[in-house]
Specification:
The protein has 222 residues and is α/β, with parallel strands linked by helices. A seven-stranded mixed beta sheet has the order 3-2-1-4-5-7-6, with helices on both faces. It has helices at 6-14, 21-33, 42-56, 70-76, 95-104, 118-121, 141-148, 179-192, 218-221, and strands spanning 60-64, 84-89, 111-115, 129-134, 152-161, 197-202, 208-213. α3 runs parallel beside α4 (70-76). The protein is built from nine helices and seven strands, in the order αααβαβαβαβαβαββα. It has one domain (6-161): Vaccinia Virus protein VP39 (Rossmann fold).
């Protein structure tokens, strides 16, 4: 499902900062060599992630769901000089594709690329994160959120991808709701009702939920 008219989308991309040569090559090779290439963040969403990262100026970033590394490279553009981006993916078959792009990038010293189950890896992480990007299996979004929340700095940001799920989150009479769709609906409701965060859902590509972790006050926890 395309949320924007294709001509409007082309106009938006044409009037946004172009992707780098490396990102362009990564995008092309992903579409040629990797299954489910549409999972790639792509030009517009990548520039949004870069812009947000530049605005936040994170010291540490955590990404859950690397895929072919496009979003990680975009997020790394705004990281502080001595910062680290830890990106986790369960698909070991993509490692040989992804690592050369990371190593070629200007941010290779900042990137900690880990292969494994994020549900197992996250509890072992000891850093605090100014920015977390979640773009992995939808059924576990709520679990990832619970695991990372206390690792996010006060005032830090959590960005979650695919929260519109091809428009299937809007249920019409007669629609059958699959497991992933229900998980996204439940997650969106959960974070919308979470008084610990400020939230806004951007209709960019397949939907980006942006959360800011608020400073807790006595009145907010009564």
């Amino acid at each position: 499902m395309e949320l924007l008219d294709k001509y409007i989308n082309k106009y938006v991309e044409a009037h946004s900062e172009p992707e780098s040569v490396l990102l362009g090559r990564l995008s092309r090779e992903t579409y040629v060599k990797v299954l489910r290439a549409r999972m790639l963040s792509g030009h517009l969403q990548g520039r949004v992630l870069s812009m947000l990262s530049h605005m936040i100026k994170p010291l540490n970033i955590l990404e859950i769901g690397t895929f072919t590394g496009y979003s990680a490279l975009c997020l790394a553009e705004g990281i502080q000089e001595h910062g680290t981006l830890c990106t986790i993916d369960i698909n070991e078959e993509l490692e040989d594709f992804v690592r050369p792009f990371f190593e070629e990038s200007a941010f290779h010293k900042h990137i900690d690329y880990r292969i494994g189950n994020a549900l197992d890896i996250i509890p072992t992480l000891t850093d605090l994160y100014d920015l977390v990007f979640i773009d992995a299996d939808k059924i576990n979004y709520a679990k990832y959120y619970a695991l990372i929340f206390d690792k996010v700095t006060t005032g830090g940001y959590i960005i979650i991808d695919n929260v519109l799920w091809y428009g299937k989150v809007v249920i019409k009479a007669g629609d059958k709701v699959d497991t992933d769709t229900q998980a996204i609906i439940d997650f969106n409701n959960q974070v919308h009702d979470d008084e610990r965060v400020q939230n806004v859902l951007f209709p960019i590509r397949d939907g980006l939920m942006v959360l800011r972790k608020k400073q807790l006050t006595y009145s907010s926890i009564k």
